[in-house]
Each structure stands twice: as structure tokens, then as C-alpha cells.
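User: Please fill in residues for this 579-position structure.
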């Protein structure tokens, strides 16, 4: 087999010239506390062992620094957190700012920025940052992915030379795993969030997408506009955004709210603002009432510039969190006391822009026909341009009204385990109980392409009012609790990050015990004769789906899934709703 071709040196577009006040943060080459990235001129980033050794040396040198393992990765490596505190060596009682780096291990800017900031807090006079808050820093979240470094990982990132992978050792994208919590890293992080209950949670990434002049961008759940909890979102929008922007501009950076493109091949189609589910760090923070910031440095800016911008943003975050600690605590309390009656579950891009950025600072591009793809491809020129950028919002499509409670059968141990992990309150009944409940029947369920260790499911649902006797051990999850909205996002099957959507109930998709065709066919015929809407939908499907029309078994399954409440139970969603 011939060797893989070398990555062309000219594949990345020209870098814009840059210098800023943040360059003064870099120490001299002979400084005894130079970080590995600084020593390498930001050409490379240290591996896990070198990062840990450097932090252990800092721990030994400063009473402000303490290292602790808070879990293990899928391959058994210790997940490390570093607490910087003026309290007791192993942790004080002040509010915590939690910062994590490397959830996508190739996007590792936060790690090297955090090492520089910890050094300056511990040894270089910035310990005043700890007067009113503690910093807890996770230098590498996805360690297993981090250690799979290659020049071919994240080839669009301008440094470091070798980078880790997106996913963990099992191929799970950890920033899609907060809701379903399959990975040991995720379970450890959720436990850490519950333990620390931070007043600010910062997740450091690097963007993909298109070229632009901005170097450091950041955002929040739903870009703030579409957050499910308003008080913490309002603090992020009115306090964090302006303060972080001002600090970055003073340091010579070009910040903005993260512009998520509608179409990377045509940036002028606009940037997207949309709700977020609890699969993401920012969405999860929104659902649990913790203000959460997603940092998205720009991929085509040099690594040195990105690391320095991250340092400035983290320092500004600590400063502001200290100033606003009481205000943030009040916002968290307000959100956790709220009891929303409804939850948006599906949305669609708005037909018209909801706003405009009058002078978006972009980069011009040319196009050429690629002999590899046969289509027109972009070639970014490095030439700054400004243009009017539309902001594309979302219109609601489906909203669910939250019930008083959800009832989960005791045999659904995987679901109950996740509820317990997230800290969602529930009670088990000691003896059978008969109730009138809302039962949801699954219609047209279809398994989707494999994603992050799961086979997601799409379906529609029909609701029946039924009287059922629930066995002892069934758990009741009340919506009247601080995490009631998170419970809804997980247990309402229509929600995009529900347990059902992530494929937690595969038994629902198995065929029921087969009856003889001479029984099934007359039952299906009776349904067609008696139910006009079912008959109309069946005839429409026959007319538009030739494969379905030719498949006798598919036709029978479709009709049996639409039998009334007394029909087969195999397609019933096992969680019940208490209205």
C-alpha cells in the first residue's frame, strides 16, 4: 500500500497579521515556569503525561493549587481537576468557576491557556482573582482522544502541529453525551457539576466553518435568545457578553458572539440562532440552571493568538464572576424556582431574518472547479471584507404541556440510573397503585443512522387516557422540582434529546408475538371500515409509497400500530404521564 499523501503546506488560506497586548502574557524562554506550549513557541501542545507533570510541579510549589482525580476515562486514565483557591488546600467554600478544555481533544486551546493562567495566579501576582471565587480547571476532558494525536486530526486548525480526536475511545462525542450520559467521562463530569454547582461553567472549543476576521468567539445556550431558563441567560447576555468583549478588545483581539453559519459554502446566507437540547454542555447548563459559556476560537487563527485570547477571556470570566457572584446566585435561584408549563420540542428556521449584523467582518473567497470533487470549491483569499449578515432565528413547531409527573416502570433500570445520575428527584411506590394516566403509543418509529454509540429513533405519537395499575417499585418523577425541565427533556418522547430519541427503549421496536394472518387481516379490515382518519392515511400511504403498498407485512404492522387503546402493547412508550 502506498504511503498516505502529505498534507499540502499551502492548503490553509493566508493568516491575517496580528499583534496585541495579550502577547505580554508570554514568559521568556529561560523562565523556570514556562509552559510546554510557550517553550515550543505554540507550535505544539503537551501530551497528558507532560501536562500532568507540569501541574504536579505547580501544586508542589504553591499552596493555592491542588490537583485531584474526579473519575477515569474509558481507557482508565485519571480525569484531573485543578483547584486554585485561597481556602483550604483541598478546596474552599467560595463559589466556583468551572473551566474545561479538550472535550473535543483537537480543540485544545483552553488547556494551554489554563496552564499559563494557573501559573500567573499561583506565582505571578494574580492571586487576587481568587479573593471571592475558586477556579476549578479540567485541563483535558477527553484524555483518550487527546492521546491519539496526529497531524491529520483537525487539518483545518492552524496549529498545534499534532492534535487529538473529536471523540473518546468508544467513538462518543462527549459534547453530545450530557443527556444520555453513556461515557464514563460524561458521568464523571455530571457528578462534578452536581458537587461544585458552579456559578459559571466555561467550555473551551475551536470553531469550524468559514473564514472571518474574528479570532475569539463565544456563545450561550440558544445564543441566549432561545434559552429555556431566562434569568441565567439574561445575565450571560447583559453582563458576560459585554464584559468579555471589552476585555478581549483591550487585549488586541477581535471577538464576537459565535457566528454559527447556515451554509459554510455561502456565509452570506446568514448565521443561525436556535434552541439547544441538553446533549451539549451549554444546553445542559441551561437545563440545570448554571450559566454556561461556549468558547469557539476561530480555527484559522494561529494557535498562539487563540491561546492568548482564551487566557484573556478566562481571566475576564473570573473577574466578572467574582464581581457578580451574588447576582449570579440570585439568577440561578430564580431559574430553579421557575416551573414552566410548556417546553418547545421542535422548531424550524424562520422565513425572514430576526436581525442583521450591519458590518460583519468576513474574509473574501474565490471559487474554482476542483478536479477531485468535480464541483466549485472555496479558496479563501485572506482579504478582509465587511457585509450585511442576516441572523436566522427559529419558529416553534411543536410544544408539549408538561404533566404533573412521569411514571417510570421499575424494569427501566437504565433510565432510572440516568435520572439518579442527573440528580432528578423521584419516589418509588411501595405497593400497587391504580391511576388514570396518559399513555403514548409510538407511530412510524424509524431507527436513524448510528450516532455517538446509540441508534437514535424518530417517531410520532398518539395519546390515550387509560386506567392502569402500576406495580410496586414504579417511580414517580414530579415536574415540580428544580430539574423538572431537564426531566421533561429526557422523558417527553417528542423532545429531541429524550431517552426515546436516543434509542433507550429498543424493545418498543421489536415485533409483537405474531398472530395468524387469518386473525390479523380481519382485525385490520375492521379498523379500516370503522376509522375514517386511519383509512384516509392508509390510502394516502398506499398511493405514495409503492414499496409499502407491495409489502403485506408492512401494511398489517402499520394498521396494527393504529389499533385503539385495547390493542397490542408492544408499541407503547413505557413511561406514563400524570396529567
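Assistant: Residues filled in for all 579 positions:
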Amino acid at each position: 500500500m502506498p504511503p498516505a499523501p502529505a498534507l499540502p503546506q499551502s492548503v490553509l488560506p493566508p493568516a491575517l497579521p496580528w499583534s496585541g497586548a495579550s502577547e505580554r502574557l508570554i514568559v521568556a524562554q529561560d523562565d523556570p515556569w514556562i509552559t510546554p506550549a510557550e517553550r515550543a513557541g505554540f507550535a505544539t501542545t503537551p501530551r497528558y503525561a507532560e501536562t500532568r507533570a507540569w501541574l504536579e510541579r505547580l501544586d508542589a510549589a504553591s499552596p493555592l493549587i491542588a490537583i485531584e482525580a474526579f473519575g477515569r476515562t474509558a481507557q482508565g486514565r485519571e480525569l484531573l481537576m485543578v483547584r486554585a483557591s485561597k481556602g483550604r488546600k483541598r478546596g474552599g467554600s467560595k463559589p466556583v468557576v468551572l473551566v474545561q478544555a479538550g472535550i473535543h481533544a483537537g480543540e485544545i486551546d483552553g488547556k494551554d491557556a489554563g496552564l499559563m493562567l494557573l501559573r500567573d495566579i499561583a506565582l505571578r501576582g494574580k492571586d487576587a482573582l481568587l479573593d471571592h471565587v475558586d477556579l476549578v480547571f479540567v485541563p483535558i476532558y477527553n484524555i483518550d482522544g487527546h492521546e491519539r494525536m496526529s497531524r491529520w486530526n483537525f487539518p483545518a486548525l492552524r496549529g498545534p502541529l499534532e492534535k487529538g480526536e473529536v471523540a473518546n475511545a468508544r467513538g462518543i462525542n462527549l459534547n453530545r453525551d450530557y443527556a444520555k450520559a453513556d461515557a464514563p467521562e460524561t458521568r464523571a463530569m455530571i457528578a462534578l457539576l452536581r458537587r461544585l454547582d458552579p456559578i459559571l461553567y466555561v467550555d473551551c472549543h475551536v470553531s469550524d466553518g468559514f473564514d472571518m476576521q474574528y479570532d475569539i468567539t463565544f456563545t450561550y445556550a440558544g445564543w441566549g435568545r432561545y434559552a429555556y431558563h431566562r434569568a441565567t441567560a439574561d445575565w450571560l447576555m447583559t453582563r458576560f457578553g459585554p464584559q468579555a468583549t471589552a476585555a478581549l478588545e483591550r487585549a488586541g483581539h477581535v471577538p464576537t458572539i459565535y457566528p454559527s453559519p447556515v451554509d459554510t459554502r455561502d456565509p452570506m446566507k446568514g448565521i443561525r440562532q436556535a434552541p439547544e437540547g441538553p446533549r451539549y454542555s451549554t444546553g445542559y447548563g441551561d437545563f440545570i440552571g448554571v450559566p454556561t459559556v461556549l468558547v469557539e476560537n476561530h480555527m484559522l487563527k494561529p494557535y498562539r493568538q487563540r491561546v492568548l485570547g482564551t487566557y484573556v477571556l478566562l481571566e475576564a470570566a473570573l473577574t466578572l464572576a467574582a464581581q457578580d457572584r451574588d447576582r449570579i446566585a440570585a439568577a440561578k435561584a430564580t431559574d430553579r424556582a421557575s416551573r414552566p408549563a410548556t417546553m418547545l420540542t421542535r422548531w424550524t428556521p424562520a422565513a425572514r431574518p430576526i436581525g442583521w449584523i450591519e458590518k460583519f467582518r468576513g474574509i473574501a473567497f474565490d471559487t474554482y472547479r476542483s478536479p477531485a470533487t468535480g464541483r466549485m470549491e472555496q479558496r479563501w483569499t485572506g482579504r478582509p471584507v465587511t457585509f450585511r449578515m442576516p441572523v436566522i432565528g427559529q419558529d416553534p413547531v411543536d410544544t408539549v404541556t408538561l404533566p404533573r409527573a412521569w411514571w417510570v416502570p421499575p424494569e427501566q433500570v437504565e433510565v432510572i440510573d440516568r435520572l439518579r445520575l442527573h440528580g432528578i428527584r423521584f419516589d418509588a411506590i411501595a405497593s400497587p397503585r391504580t391511576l388514570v394516566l396518559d399513555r403514548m403509543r409510538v407511530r412510524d418509529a424509524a431507527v436513524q443512522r448510528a450516532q455517538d454509540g446509540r441508534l437514535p429513533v424518530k417517531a410520532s405519537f398518539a395519546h390515550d387516557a387509560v386506567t392502569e395499575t402500576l406495580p410496586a417499585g414504579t417511580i414517580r418523577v414530579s415536574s415540580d422540582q428544580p430539574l423538572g425541565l431537564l426531566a421533561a427533556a429526557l422523558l417527553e418522547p417528542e423532545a429531541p434529546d429524550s431517552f426515546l430519541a436516543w434509542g433507550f427503549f429498543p424493545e418498543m421496536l421489536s415485533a409483537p408475538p405474531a398472530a395468524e394472518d387469518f386473525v390479523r387481516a380481519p382485525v385490520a379490515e375492521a379498523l379500516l371500515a370503522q376509522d375514517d382518519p386511519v383509512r384516509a392515511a392508509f390510502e394516502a400511504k398506499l398511493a405514495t409509497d409503492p414499496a409499502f403498498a407491495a409489502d403485506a407485512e408492512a401494511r398489517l404492522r402499520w394498521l396494527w400500530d393504529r389499533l385503539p387503546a385495547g390493542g397490542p402493547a408492544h408499541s407503547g412508550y413505557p413511561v406514563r404521564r400524570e396529567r
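For context: The first strand starts at residue 65 and ends at 72.
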